[in-house]
């Protein structure tokens, strides 16, 4: 049985509690949250032990699930690792690059697993296409959300765009060559809306727009590569593949029509891959537990978390607003 303690039971922490309760082989030992309102709600709803001292909770568990605001990630992770506890920490790994590097070093020197909550890696729309031969040359990303004070302790880059940065780094097998970016703080002192162009050494270009001040929500990645277009709708959990083929296919799930190209007649094949029934938060927590039990690398490791933060901080420097605490 993996004994788990949750640090932070606000909006997302409650989803984590619900999921841990359903994961076989995991035992929720208790939680720590300094906020009286959230703690009382959890006490009533979940009948789970509240710890007044985070250190006491740490001694009672094998793994810490850190779902506190980003400016608390480093301290909470640091004390968990120093106490020999495995760590699941919500994205982003930490707030500053110094903190992220220090956490990577601590994990390396210890015997613990760390996973970062880049939950889009487990989004069923992404799972449906991630095993295709992806070789993106142009990526267009839109992640738009309505304004919510939660998460504004950091910029939109570390709050929302970091999800897409992590996904892009996981599918583009090349180093970043150049970044250009612009952003504006409309509702807060840090960028709330930003547009970023990331150029990779292999020629791939990713164009990302993130906003937390939009009227409508959108979470889409469009991938263009030599032989195909792949669209991933993370919000509505749908994906679409469009390919150019020499002949029509008789697959009933693929819609085709003919077009004239420079090389003669070709078929356009449009398909919507089967989307697996996956609860992304449950899946990421289960995979974290599996990595501990099997002593394997976590799917989104501390290095992945650091790499996403590195790109995020380069973006912030380009925007010229690296003041990330309000
Ligand atoms: N993966 C995702 O898609 C996703 C979505 C939303 C939030 N998040 C991340 O989850 C984290 C929490 O976000 P939220 O929306 O639940 O925020 P929230 O404000 O709703 O909840 C945070 C909770 O943490 C508590 N807290 C503060 N300091 C603490 C400490 N030192 N120890 C323990 N608890 C503490 C607060 O009292 C509050 O109850 C953030 O890092 C955020 O980036 C990730």
Question: How would you describe the overall organization of this protein?
Answer:
It is built from nine helices and 14 strands. Among the domains are: 2-120 and 280-298, Rossmann fold (3-Layer(aba) Sandwich); 240-274, no CATH class. The chain has a nine-stranded mixed β-sheet. The protein has a five-stranded parallel β-sheet with strand order 2-1-3-4-5, with helices on both faces. The two termini are 41 Å apart. Helices cover 32% and strands 29% of the residues. It has helices at residues 11-22, 36-46, 54-59, 73-82, 97-109, 124-127, 156-171, 280-294, 302-319; strands spanning 2-7, 26-32, 63-66, 86-90, 114-117, 138-144, 176-184, 193-200, 205-211, 218-225, 228-233, 238-245, 254-261, 264-271. Helix 4 packs parallel to helix 5 (97-109), helix 5 runs antiparallel to helix 9 (302-319) and helix 7 crosses helix 9. The longest helix has 18 residues, at 302-319. It is an alpha/beta fold and 326 residues long. Residues 7-13, 32-35, 38, 67-70, 72, 76, 90-91, 117, 119, 150-151 line the site of nicotinamide-adenine-dinucleotide.
């Amino acid at each position: 049985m993996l004994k788990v303690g949750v640090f932070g039971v606000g909006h997302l922490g409650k989803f984590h509690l619900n999921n841990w309760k359903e994961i076989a082989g995991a035992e929720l030992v208790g939680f720590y949250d300094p906020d009286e309102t959230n703690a009382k709600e959890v006490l009533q709803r979940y009948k789970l032990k509240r710890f007044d001292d985070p250190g006491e909770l740490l001694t009672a568990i094998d793994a810490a699930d850190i779902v506190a605001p980003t400016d608390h990630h480093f301290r909470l992770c640091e004390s968990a690792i120093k106490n020999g506890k495995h760590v699941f920490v919500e994205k982003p790994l930490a707030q500053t690059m110094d903190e992220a590097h220090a956490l990577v070093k601590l994990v390396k020197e210890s015997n613990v697993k760390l996973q970062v909550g880049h939950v889009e890696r487990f989004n069923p729309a992404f799972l449906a296409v991630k095993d295709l031969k992806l070789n993106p040359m142009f990526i267009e990303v839109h992640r738009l959300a309505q304004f919510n004070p939660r998460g504004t302790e950091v910029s939109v880059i570390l709050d929302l765009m970091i999800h897409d940065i992590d996904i892009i780094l996981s599918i583009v097998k090349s180093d970043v060559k150049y970044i250009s970016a612009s952003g504006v703080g409309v509702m807060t002192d840090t960028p709330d809306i930003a547009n970023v162009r990331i150029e990779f050494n292999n020629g791939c270009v990713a164009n990302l727009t993130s906003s937390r001040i939009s009227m409508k929500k959108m979470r889409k990645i469009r991938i263009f590569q030599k032989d195909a277009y792949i669209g991933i709708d993370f919000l509505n959990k749908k994906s679409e593949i469009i390919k150019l083929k020499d002949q029509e296919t008789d697959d009933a799930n693929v819609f085709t029509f003919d077009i004239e190209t420079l090389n003669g007649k070709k078929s356009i094949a449009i398909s919507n891959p089967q989307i697996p029934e996956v609860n992304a938060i449950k899946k990421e927590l289960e995979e974290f537990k599996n990595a501990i039990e099997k002593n394997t690398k976590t799917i989104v490791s501390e290095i992945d978390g650091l790499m996403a933060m590195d790109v995020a901080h380069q973006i912030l420097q380009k925007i010229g607003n690296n003041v990330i605490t309000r």
